[in-house]
Design brief:
One of its GO terms (cellular component) is cytoplasm. Homodimer. The protein is of the alpha+beta class. It folds into three domains: 94 residues, Orthogonal Bundle (Helix Hairpins), CATH 1.10.287.110; 100 residues, HSP40/DNAj peptide-binding domain; 91 residues, HSP40/DNAj peptide-binding domain, CATH 2.60.260. It is built from nine helices and 15 strands. The strands form six sheets. Strands 10-11-15-14 form a four-stranded mixed β-sheet. The radius of gyration is 41 Å and the shape is elongated. The termini are far apart. About 8% of the residues have low confidence.
């Protein structure tokens, strides 16, 4: 060969592909026609482009090292003029100026699996104090027959004879820029660089199968609707037996027959007769901590609330608990027998409430009334 491509790039004959690429990128930044328009420099740029086209391709490099002409079939890289003459690796030109990393070479069959999510129903007391649950999960696991390789037992993946393991095939086309070499994923191996002649009969070459597993999940105290618990590495195993994704357990708290949860506080309503509200009473209430007596003081009005501190849900972050708020509803009798009616009339007479006038409070204005007053400056 008349041209020593190694000397053109300034590398030794045993230089690695990484060293060849670095040398080309350095020279391309110096000699690119947009940077240095001198005609001699342009010729030099064509030479380094042709040298890199040969030395970066294992097949062409092998032909060149044996004394052949690797560019004879494509007409040579330096024969056409112009900016793009011999443009065998446009992505490497972009690397030289913008620092982008080209995705060359075969892609791995092993990839990370997807995350998975499952919804778990729990009771209020379990959310308040925490619990441990066993859940059934249907996910992809590593194939037990081929251990993720994808090939049938006794066989293995083989190097693709179309791309010779590169995962991509190249094609030279002519354009107004000159001869341009483009690369695309190998259609035979789909870019993997290898093919599996005999796929595993269990997983059909995917390296994973679906299976049902039982997992034990620890539910911390204080979780609420929508809380997600992450179980790292318990999701879907990736193709080719790749690492598993994560499993997320989303909490769904079931409705309680007595208590309504608002944040970490619990609310409930107790209905008592008007006589009990007037005289006072004690009402037993089944709380999350057991039965407790609710002290209804004499004269309690309908709508009043009685707080029981530290009887709510445990705070998820930090110590302590919320409160239990008991709302009192006073029930007025709708039907009275003659004796009960007489007793109430006597009570009303004793209290001077036979003809009560009532106490009226100023009513709240509507939206339009408030707007009218605002515009009138009132």
């Amino acid at each position: 060969m008349a041209t020593d491509y190694y000397s053109v790039l300034g590398v030794s004959r045993d230089a690695s592909q990484d060293q060849i690429k670095k040398a080309f990128r350095r020279l391309a930044r110096e000699l690119h026609p947009d940077v240095n328009p001198d005609p001699k420099t342009q010729e030099r740029f064509k030479e380094i482009n042709a040298a890199y086209e040969v030395l970066s391709d294992p097949q062409k490099k092998q032909v060149y090292d044996l004394g052949g002409d690797p560019l004879s079939q494509s007409g040579g890289a330096g024969g056409a003029g112009g900016f793009g003459a011999g443009f065998g690796n446009f992505s490497d030109i972009m690397d030289a100026f913008f620092g982008t990393a080209s995705q060359r070479g075969p892609r791995s069959r092993t990839r990370r699996g997807q995350d998975a999510m499952i919804r778990l129903d729990i009771e209020l007391n379990e959310a308040a104090f925490g619990t441990t649950k066993d859940i059934q999960v249907d996910t992809a696991i590593v194939c037990t027959t081929c251990t993720g390789e994808g090939a049938a037992p006794g066989t293995s993946a083989q190097t693709c004879d179309m791309c010779r393991g590169r995962g991509e095939v190249s094609q030279v086309t002519r354009s107004f820029l000159g001869q341009v070499m483009t690369s695309r994923p190998c259609p035979q191996c789909q870019g993997f660089g290898t093919v599996v002649p005999t796929p595993c009969p269990e997983c059909a070459g995917d390296g994973r199968i679906r299976s049902r597993r039982t997992l034990t999940v620890k539910i911390p105290a204080g979780v609420d609707n929508g809380t997600r618990i992450q179980l790292a590495g318990e999701g879907e195993v990736g193709p080719g037996g790749g690492p598993a994704g994560d499993l997320y357990v989303e909490i769904h708290e079931l409705a309680h027959p007595v208590f309504q949860r608002r944040g970490d506080d619990l609310h409930c309503t107790v209905t008592i007769p008007m006589t009990a509200a007037a005289l006072g009473t004690k009402c037993p209430l089944e709380t999350l901590d057991g039965v407790e007596e609710i002290d209804v003081r004499p004269g309690t009005q309908s709508g009043q609330s009685i707080p029981l501190h530290q009887r709510g849900v445990t705070h998820l972050r930090g110590g302590g608990r919320g409160d239990l708020i008991v709302h009192v509803e006073v029930q007025t009798p709708t039907k009275l027998d003659p004796e009960q009616e007489e007793l109430l009339r006597r009570l009303a007479k004793l209290r001077g409430e036979e003809r009560p006038t009532g106490q009226f409070q100023p009513g709240q204005q509507g939206l339009f009334s408030r707007l009218k007053d605002a515009f009138n400056g009132r």
